[in-house]
Design goal:
19 helices, disordered N terminus, alpha/beta, elongated
Length: about 700
């Protein structure tokens, strides 16, 4: 049976024999049928029972079945019924061979799918003629099946070829689109490239909407532009566009005969805008939608690259402007300092002139110190190293500190500073020094950008757990285009060479970061040039539980009051000019001073000199200041001395290392002379104060 199974799996060609099944229980009948049908040249298969016939049918395919009606076990009619139950043989012609046919039997046979009854004994010519017809029909049917299979294979091949061509066309299109979109890092060029790619390939019209950080529309571009000048974003589409940008999800809208594909422009998890592709409804099928999504995705990347490139260029431009301005601002105070020194070196200088030159040098040195402090603060903020130390303080105390530091500047410009505080006492948790720096910066800015005889107003109010402090001036105001960038690092509205106000453009950046570190926010408003500016700081606050008189915390300033004999001070600094000027200053105050320029000699001098105070620089050659301080603490002669780090290193790490090395205080050059003298007035009391604070 195996060879017959093989022929069953592959349709036989026209010259190959087909299978004819003869089912009869009598061997002699098989001899007769085989003799009669051999002339047809077909494959005759003999089955001697219905069961054997069913087994053959499961393995082979037959053109016709000759079935004896009267068989033992399973008769012909019952066998025909079983044959029809198989899908494979459900349509195979069955010819019954019987000696006697009654009407009932004939009806049953035809009901089971019989195509003919041939009486036995058979007439050879009649049997061969009928079987030949079934064989030809079978061959024709198989030929039709082969042709249908060939047509189906051809159709599949054509479909595969069309799909391959479409895939190649799609790949070529996307490659060209990527090349056009990535050709330039200019945003306008990228937008034009997107329009060229999208129209007319994807849509008849394209609308690009770019969003501001707050979600509002920054710009809307259309290609081609409406001929009648109508709004490219009608109200319905504008609402759908807003939803798509907010949800960051693709949306397909159909209105009348048009379809609109709204594709968000995404950068990470943020929506930068959206592209709307408008085309006839029948054009916007699934394939076109998928292609549109891919193109817009690539456009999103190209636009984000353009945006980042512009941001880098802008940051680089502002950095270069800042460096130029920094050089300008640092040179400005150096000029009067150098001139004052030259005047003081004159042969016939009156005391009045000496006092004037001293004041000039002092003011300019203070100005340079403020510039450097601001730079250091910005550096710490950028690196995330600024830590605020919250404490309970009152609004009045905070404002008093800020006003005290800013009043000389305001008074020097003949300006009036008006302060209006709420009647009730307001408390907040914050770093008094940093918050005073915030308000001081705002007052100084208001003074700097306002003319003489103008008014500066500081007002405060409290509502719903929030303190609102506003500083309003009558100065030069701010251009509307620059207002959103007022808190950016190094940003300055006036970039002209003749700008008279100076500054590095970092004060308001410091204000913003320090306020945010306190859980607050800061905003600015101006009606335009010449209309003044108002900066508002909002901070968490509360009403004081027990109102009372507020005493200002001592700031350590003022002339020192020494109630004991002049002390011994060791100054250690490798910069001779710094050591000599400090020694001269201290000797003028009545102290006994020794100077060392490096660590080893400082240890030797300390052992003999037994200083009460050591003013020690950290950046020493050879043995650094931390190691010198550690060794001084091990020597009996200097174990209990007041150790003050007097250095240019002011970052948190240096302060932490100072404390671990044994320093009592860490002061940044140039040191506040009054504060330094107050510490030197009573070294042991200063040490006890330092120990309590630690």
């Amino acid at each position: 049976m195996s060879p017959r199974l093989e022929s069953n799996h592959s349709p036989p060609p026209e010259h190959e024999p087909v299978n004819i099944l003869v089912v009869d229980d009598l061997p002699e009948k098989h001899v007769v049928f085989r003799t009669i049908l051999d002339e047809l040249g077909q494959n005759i298969v003999s089955a001697r029972s219905g069961k054997e016939a069913l087994a053959y049918i499961l393995e082979m395919e037959f053109a016709v079945i000759l079935l004896d009606v009267n068989m033992p076990d399973i008769d012909g009619l019952e066998t025909a019924g079983l044959i029809r139950q198989y899908k494979k043989s459900a349509q195979t012609p069955i010819v019954f061979i019987t000696a006697y046919v009654d009407e009932v039997q004939a009806k049953r046979g035809y009901a089971l799918g019989a195509v003919d009854y041939i009486p036995s004994p058979v007439v050879p010519e009649v049997l061969r003629s009928k079987i030949r017809v079934f064989v030809e029909l079978f061959r024709m049917n198989r030929q039709l099946q082969v042709q249908a299979a060939a047509r189906e294979a051809l159709a599949r091949s054509e479909a595969a070829r069309a799909a391959a061509e479409e895939a190649i066309h799609r790949a070529d299109y996307l490659a060209e689109a990527s090349q056009l979109l990535a050709r330039s890092l200019d945003l306008d060029d990228t937008i034009r490239a997107l329009f060229d790619v999208a129209v007319p390939m994807l849509a008849d019209r394209a609308v690009l909407a770019l969003a501001n950080p707050d979600g509002s529309l920054a710009r809307v571009d259309t290609h081609p532009a409406p001929a009648d000048g109508s709004d490219p974003l009608p109200e319905g589409l504008r609402g759908a566009l807003a939803r798509a940008m907010e949800s960051r999800q693709f949306e397909l809208r159909r209105e009348a005969q048009q379809a609109m594909a709204i594709c968000p422009l995404l950068a990470g998890d943020r929506s930068r805008g959206a592209v709307v592709l408008v085309a006839d409804g029948d054009r916007m099928d699934a394939s076109r939608v998928a292609l549109a999504k891919e193109v817009v995705s690539r456009a999103s990347i190209a636009m984000e690259n353009a945006r980042l490139y512009f941001a880098v260029q802008e940051a680089d431009r502002r950095k270069n402007e800042f460096l130029a301005m920094l050089a300008h601002e640092l040179r400005n105070p150096l000029a009067p300092i150098r001139n004052a020194v030259h005047i003081m070196q004159g042969g016939d200088v009156t005391q009045l002139t000496m006092n004037w030159a001293r004041d000039v040098i002092g003011r300019q040195a203070d100005h340079m110190a403020r510039l450097i402090d601001d730079l250091l603060d910005v550096s710490r903020i950028v690196q995330g190293k600024v830590v605020v130390k919250p404490e309970k303080l009152t609004l009045r105390e905070l404002v008093d500190r800020a006003v005290e530091g800013s009043s000389p500047r305001v008074a020097g410009r003949d300006q009036l500073l008006s302060v209006e505080l709420p009647a009730e006492e307001i408390e907040l948790d914050g770093d008094a020094v940093r918050l005073a720096q915030v308000l001081g910066n705002l007052i100084n800015n208001a003074s700097k950008f306002s003319g003489q005889n103008t008014k500066i107003c500081l007002t405060a109010s409290h509502a719903a757990g929030e303190l609102r402090i506003a500083v309003r001036d009558e100065g030069s105001g701010i251009e509307p285009a620059f207002l959103p960038h007022i808190f950016d690092l190094f940003a300055q509205g006036d970039q002209s060479l003749d700008r008279s106000q100076g500054g590095l453009g970092i004060g308001l950046t410091l204000v913003k970061h320090l306020v945010e570190l306190h859980g607050g926010r800061v905003t600015a408003h101006s009606d335009g040039p010449g209309m003044g500016t108002e900066v508002v700081v909002c901070l968490p606050a509360r009403l004081a539980s027990a109102p009372g008189a507020v005493t200002a915390a001592p700031d350590g300033r003022g002339s020192p009051s020494r109630g004991k004999a002049p002390g011994r001070i060791l100054v250690v600094d490798d910069l001779a000019a710094s050591a000599e000027t400090l020694m001269t200053l201290l000797e003028m105050e009545g102290f006994e001073v020794k100077v060392a320029n490096e660590g080893a000699s400082a240890l030797q001098i300390a052992e003999q000199f037994r200083p009460d105070v050591v003013l020690l620089d950290i950046g020493l050659p050879g043995m650094n200041g931390f190691e010198v301080a550690h060794r001084l603490r091990l020597q009996p002669a200097s174990r209990d001395a007041l150790l003050i780090a007097l250095t240019g290193y002011g970052e948190a790490e240096s302060r932490s290392r100072s404390a671990k090395a044994g320093f009592d205080f860490h002061m940044v050059k140039p040191a506040d002379v009054n504060l330094l003298l107050s510490l030197l007035a009573n070294p042991q009391q200063a040490r006890r104060t330092s120990a309590k604070a630690a």
